[in-house]
């Protein structure tokens, strides 16, 4: 029945589907595969799941590929916070690109350049008591061919602290690596933001 609808109505109907549903629809038959692979459907899904400020983007390989790349970066970025939460230094060592130009700015204002210095900084950071569980909000992601960056606000439940965080990734040897991390206190009207304690 859907294949009998005009393209505009089909695209509108598909805009209500989530990522798994759209993928499953593409496997039903050839007409549904054509409809589910429509670039406008993936553009609508991208704007529903990710940031809206990328209206001026024209993905060179289409919105489906751009959606997949953005979802991959978002998942990789979540992996970074998993590593921090678990203080998993071996995983952090594999997460960063081993290069002399990588750079890390921690929330205390200290900065480190080069792979070895950055790894030493994380070894020290994992001894800090305020490395806790993060709540990530206001995520903004941009993906290019071999570079991606993610900006977000991160909130630590332990001390009700809030931070601006920016992570930059580069694509090397078939996978994404972190090359830049920057954390700074989140300020509103010149005052560091403090969340109300739970309970």
Describe this protein with a few key phrases.
single chain; 199 residues; alpha+beta; Nuclear Transport Factor 2, Chain: A; six-stranded mixed β-sheet; two-stranded antiparallel sheet; 7 helices; disordered C terminus; F-box-like_dom_sf; F-box domain-containing protein
Provide an overview of this structure.
The chain has 199 residues and is of the alpha+beta class. Helices cover 38% and strands 27% of the residues. It has a domain at 88-192: Nuclear Transport Factor 2, Chain: A (Roll). It has a six-stranded mixed β-sheet with strand order 2-1-6-5-4-3, with helices on one face. Strands 7-8 form a two-stranded antiparallel ribbon. Helix 4 (39-49) packs parallel to helix 5. The chain is elongated and about 55 Å long. Pfam families: F-box-like, SnoaL_3. It comes from Dorcoceras hygrometricum.
Give me the secondary-structure topology.
Elements lengths: L6 H8 L4 H7 L4 H7 L2 H11 L13 H24 L2 H7 L7 E3 L5 E3 L1 H11 L8 E10 L3 E10 L4 E12 L2 E11 L1 E2 L2 E2 L7
Parallel strand pairs: 1-6
Antiparallel strand pairs: 1-2, 3-4, 4-5, 5-6, 7-8
Helix pairs in contact: 4-5
Quick structural gist:
This protein has 199 residues and is of the alpha+beta class. Helices cover 38% and strands 27% of the residues.
State the total count of DSSP E strands. Answer: 8
CATH architecture of the domain at 88-192: Roll
In DSSP terms (H or I, runs of 4 or more residues), the helix count works out at: 7
Order of helices and strands: HHHHHHEEHEEEEEE
CATH fold title of the domain at 88-192: Nuclear Transport Factor 2, Chain: A
Q: What is the distance, rounded to the nearest whole angstrom, between the alpha carbons of the first and last residues?
A: 51 Å
Oligomer designation:
single chain
**Unreliable stretches:** 189-199
Kindly state the mean pLDDT as a whole number?
Answer: 81
Approximately what portion of the residues adopt beta-strand conformation? 25-35%
Order of adjacent strands in the largest pleated sheet:
2-1-6-5-4-3
Q: In terms of structural class, how would the helical and strand content be classed?
A: alpha+beta
How large, in whole angstroms, is the Cα Rg?
A: 20 Å
Measured as a percent range, the helix fraction is 25-40%
Overall morphology: elongated
Major sheet attributes: 6 strands, mixed
CATH class of the domain at 88-192 reads: Alpha Beta
Protein name: F-box domain-containing protein
Domain F-box: 1-45
Pfam family, one: F-box-like
């Amino acid at each position: 029945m859907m294949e009998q609808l005009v393209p505009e109505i089909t695209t509108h109907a598909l805009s209500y589907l989530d990522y798994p549903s759209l993928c499953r629809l593409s496997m039903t038959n050839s007409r549904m595969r054509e409809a589910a692979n429509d670039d406008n459907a993936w553009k609508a899904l991208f704007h529903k799941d990710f940031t809206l400020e990328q209206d001026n983007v024209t993905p060179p390989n289409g919105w489906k590929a751009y959606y997949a790349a953005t979802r991959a970066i978002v998942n990789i970025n979540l992996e970074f916070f998993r590593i921090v939460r678990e203080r998993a230094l071996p995983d952090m060592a594999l997460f960063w690109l081993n290069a002399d130009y990588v750079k890390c700015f921690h929330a205390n204002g200290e900065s480190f350049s080069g792979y070895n210095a950055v790894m030493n900084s994380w070894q020290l950071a994992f001894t800090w008591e305020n490395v806790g569980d993060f709540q990530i909000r206001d995520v903004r992601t941009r993906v290019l061919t071999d570079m991606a960056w993610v900006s977000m606000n991160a909130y630590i439940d332990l001390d009700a602290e809030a931070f601006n965080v920016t992570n930059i990734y580069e694509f090397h040897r078939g996978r994404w690596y972190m090359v830049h991390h920057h954390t700074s206190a989140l300020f509103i009207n010149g005052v560091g933001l403090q969340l109300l304690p739970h309970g």
